[in-house]
From TrEMBL:
Gene for this chain: CDK5RAP1
Residue ranges of every copy of the TRAM domain listed in the record: 498-573
GO cellular component: cytosol; mitochondrial matrix; nucleoplasm
Keywords of the record: 4Fe-4S, Iron, Iron-sulfur, Metal-binding, S-adenosyl-L-methionine
Protein's name in the database: Mitochondrial tRNA methylthiotransferase CDK5RAP1
Organism: Gopherus evgoodei (Goodes thornscrub tortoise)
Family: Belongs to the methylthiotransferase family. MiaB subfamily.
Length: 584
């Protein structure tokens, strides 16, 4: 169906709409989201304006009137043919596609979701948080453990059933898999199971609009190519929660460590770092938006190395932590993590800076000293141990022994008094004996972490362990050992957190507690959850005033009780980072 649109008056716009078939009008109505939306209104206003400037009603009547008597035609330039409003143009103008994004896994996947949404938003997509409103459903996935992948498979089968129930009057529902699982299982996802329309790896989010365009034709589409240089440095992620008090900023992607159990180098590729300037620009934008805490992200965040400018390549390389080694040669030149941390903390003195996930090998003294000196860099470090057995650490290719790790822990605590520590542990790795397991138990007791992430080993294809080692522990042994590690961790974390009872903690307010509307929650400098009553308090930033805490406020809370995961307390007063640091 072809419809002229270039010079239509307002009245003719109504005439043009009536000329559309019932099916065409239903299609257009179905493709415009029912909820209010500024972007939708803008597009409809643009469409109305183009109709108002189009052919007049007389144009249609003239074309439809009976032939008049023949008159001699004057020689004149041929009239420019009327442009026509084809179905593809109608789709462009009124076919507003809505996308539903669902995120699984680590903080990097949260950041990936924000990057993917930034790309789609620029291409005219709208976002919905209601599954039934979506034209496109995208799952940002994780491949670190088998259980994480099974969750996605189950979700896909549910969504496929939803797809089959789609009304014929609606546009076909498209389903896509993004992230690590997309790269690892492309063939199985596309061909064996045939549950999705598009598959997009972590380095191909720029290609999303093209892949979705292909999918609209009824074909499957995929791009899972890994890149040696993609960092999305020029894409400003769109915050998933615009009113959030904290945000993630990706500073590097990929990993070169090649730990024998880890799939990350195969799903996210080699290490490459964003240019320093683009990171600082993003931090500044977030500060201007009122964000009060930024977490710098990377698979191996403290191995950051910016070589984007020639002069950076002459910088001296920092040494590794004492007793640590790598499987690769030392990388020369580049601005390093200490420089980035210094510059990021200077952007906004009232914005907290965190970083994750680091490798213990990359903690030179200048990083530890900077954390101690700078009041807005959180006194909290994540030091993934994985095991307390030197024999298992060697099999994991971690590059250190139990003794070297404990020496680093002591050095960190000497350098940053009161530091909060967290760690990762794997239960039941290949060849782990009961003695190896008990060494991990003793490490948990000796270090006494505040926060822990503990999992049973799950062998992943492509890894060195898959090719060289035997996954020889029964599932029930792994489960028992994991339960013992969790029990010991909770016991020791309760003791560690109990040391804060009676003390004031600086807390960034996040919002209402999930368990009670009468309580607020936030996180302290050590990244431990703090819950406290929503009561009036003194405003330490404006002497004499009485206020209530709001999301984004820094408040002092006196801790009254502690568990392995949560601190509880009472409000003392509102404050600032600077003021709080001055009274430590």
């Amino acid at each position: 169906m072809l419809l002229p649109f270039k010079h239509v008056s307002g009245a003719a716009g109504t005439f043009l709409w009536r000329r559309l078939s019932w099916a065409a009008r239903s299609e257009l109505r179905a493709r415009v989201p029912t909820r209010g939306c500024g972007e939708r209104n803008r597009r409809l206003e643009d469409f109305s304006a183009r109709l108002a400037a189009g052919p007049t009603l007389q144009h249609f009547l003239r074309n439809a009137s009976p032939p008049q008597e023949t008159r001699p035609q004057l020689a004149e330039e041929p009239e420019e043919p009327e442009p026509y409003l084809t179905s593809s143009i109608l789709e462009e103008l009124l076919g507003i596609m809505t996308v539903y994004l669902e995120t699984y896994g680590c903080q990097m996947n949260v950041n990936d979701t924000e990057i993917a949404w930034a790309v789609l938003q620029k291409s005219g997509y709208l976002r919905t948080h209601r599954l039934e409103e979506a034209d496109v459903i995208l799952l940002v996935t994780c491949s670190v453990r088998e259980k994480a992948e099974q969750v996605i498979w189950n979700r896909l089968r549910h969504l496929t059933a939803l797809k089959s129930k789609r009304l014929r009057s609606q546009a076909p529902l498209r389903i896509g898999i993004l992230g690590c699982m997309a790269e690892r299982l492309k063939e199985a996802i596309l061909h064996k199971e045939k549950l999705v329309d598009i598959v997009v790896g972590p380095d191909a989010y720029r290609d999303l609009p093209r892949l979705l365009a292909v999918a609209k034709t009824g074909q499957q589409a995929a791009n899972v190519l890994l890149s040696l240089d993609e960092t999305y440095a020029d894409i400003l992620p769109v915050q998933t929660s615009p009113d959030a008090t904290s945000a993630f900023v990706s500073i590097m992607r990929g990993c070169d460590n090649m730990c024998s159990y880890c799939i990350v180098p195969f799903t996210r590729g080699r290490e490459r770092s964003r240019p320093l300037a683009s990171i600082l620009q993003e931090v500044k934008v977030l500060s201007d938006q009122g964000v009060k805490e930024v977490t710098l992200l990377g698979q191996n965040v403290n191995s950051f190395r910016d070589t984007s400018e020639v002069q950076f390549r002459l910088a001296a390389a920092p040494g590794l932590s004492r007793g640590f080694s790598t499987i690769y040669k030392a990388k020369e030149g580049g601005l390093r993590f200490a420089h980035l941390l210094d510059q990021a903390s200077r952007v906004d003195p009232e914005m907290r800076i965190r970083f994750t996930s680091p490798h213990p090998k990359d903690f030179p003294d200048e990083v530890l000293q900077l954390i101690q000196e700078r009041h807005n860099i959180c006194k909290q470090l994540h030091l993934p141990a994985q095991s307390g057995s030197s024999r298992i650490l060697e099999a994991m290719r971690r590059g250190y022994t139990r003794e070297a790790y404990l020496e680093l822990i002591q050095h960190v605590r000497d350098s940053i008094p009161g530091v909060s520590l967290s760690s990762d542990f794997i239960a039941g790795f290949c060849g782990e004996t009961e003695d190896d397991h008990q060494q991990t138990v003793s490490l948990l007791r000796q270090v006494r972490y505040n926060v822990g992430f503990l999992f049973a080993y799950s062998m992943r294809q492509k890894t060195r362990a898959y090719h060289r080692l035997l996954d020889d522990l029964p599932a029930e042994v792994k489960r028992r050992r994991l339960e013992e590690l969790i029990s010991v961790f909770r016991e020791e974390a309760t003791r560690a957190n109990g040391a804060m009872v009676g003390r004031l903690q600086l807390v960034l307010v996040e919002g209402p507690s999930k368990r009670s509307a009468a309580e607020l929650c936030g996180r302290n400098d050590g990244n431990i959850r703090v819950v406290f009553p929503d009561t009036e308090m003194e405003d330490g930033t404006d002497s004499g005033a009485v206020v209530r805490a709001q999301p984004g406020d820094y408040v002092l809370v006196k801790v009254t009780s502690a568990s392995s995961q949560t601190l509880k307390g009472v409000l003392f007063r509102r404050t600032t980072l600077r003021e709080s640091a001055a009274h430590r």
